[in-house]
Amino acid sequence: MSGRLETEKPEWKVQFSETDRKTFEYIAGELEDFLGTKALLDVNFRLSEPQMINDLIFEKLKPLNGKVSFILKKGDQK
C-alpha cells in the first residue's frame, strides 16, 4: 500500500510507501485513537495475486460504492 493519511484538527499529514496492509491498519487506527479524530485516506494498493470478482465479492464491495475507485482487468472466465 502507498498513499497519504491526513487529519484536519489537529492537522497531521503522513505519507507512506510500500507498507503492508496490517501495518497500515494498525498505524492508522492508533493515530486516530491518539488524535481523537478520523483520518482522510488516499490509498493505492495492489493485490499480490489477481482475484476474480464473483457475485459474493461484488455484494461485499457494494458499501464502498462512491467511496473508492477500482481498476479492473478483463480476464479469462473458467
Query: What are the low-pLDDT stretches, counting only 5+ consecutive residues below 50?
Result: none
Average pLDDT works out at 81
Profile the largest sheet. 3 strands, antiparallel
Oligomer: single chain
* Radius of gyration of CA atoms, rounded to a whole number: 15 Å
Quick one: how many beta strands?
3
Element pattern in H and E: EEHEH
Termini distance?
29 Å
Structural notes for this entry:
- By secondary structure, this protein is of the alpha+beta class.
- The protein contains 2 helices and 3 strands, in the order ββαβα.
- It has a 3-stranded antiparallel β-sheet, with no helix packed on it.
Short description:
The chain is of the alpha+beta class.
Which properties best describe this structure?
78 residues; alpha+beta; 3-stranded antiparallel beta sheet; 2 helices; 3 strands; 28% helix; 21% strand
SSE topology sketch:
Elements lengths: L1 E6 L4 E5 L4 H15 L4 E5 L10 H7 L17
Antiparallel strand pairs: 1-2, 1-3
